[in-house]
Fold:
Amino acid sequence: MVARNLTKLIGLKFELESKFKISILVLEKDLSKTNSANEVFKETSEKGIQIDYLINNAGFGDFGMFADSGLDKQLQMINLNIIALTSLTRLYLTEMIKRRSGKIMNVASTAAFQPGPTMAVYYATKAYVLHFSEAIANELQGSGVTVTALCPGATESGFQAAANMYESKLVKGKKLPSSKEVALYGYKSMMNNKTVAIHGFMNYLLANSVRFAPRSVIVKVTRAIQNK
Structure:
């Protein structure tokens, strides 16, 4: 398990090890920093750990007008949501292909299906994750390795606080699915070799409806949903 909050990692490590009788290695890394993916790969390789399942679920968003946003935060988002995910996928893929066995799950979002005013960079990063995952899933057909893009909608988690979006109509006053529910759906989809997994029936309908409306209309509707 890899994250930048070592205290939470250790707490989760003890909880899972006692409950499931497994052994967990925790790596304290800020994946938004350059070369962090290489450091993770180096540590697991040196410890002789074979990665059979790679879950790229690290990411964050930011709510507000792009012109008012902090550039450093937007670039960190791109580094984490795109560059780290791409690097980790590429680094672990070679051995998976050699073994003809392995599964990768990249967490995208229903945000991947349309532009997102007030969260412009976040939506764009998730579009990358979806298209990247679909493309390499096609390339890997017959290799024994599968790639799944998990596309949840708004989910009850720490994401809203990190993105400063509790006042957005997308989440305010809404009963959102739990992280556990979405994670379990993603896990089952990965194990069933599903390439694109959209959680929730309404999310599935909305994600696919964008194909049938003018893009200018879709952007306006997304803006209306996202607004405070």
In short: The chain has eight helices and six strands. Helices lie at 6-20, 36-46, 71-99, 120-139, 159-163, 179-191, 201-209, 215-226. The domain at 51-226 is CATH 3.40.50.720 (Rossmann fold).
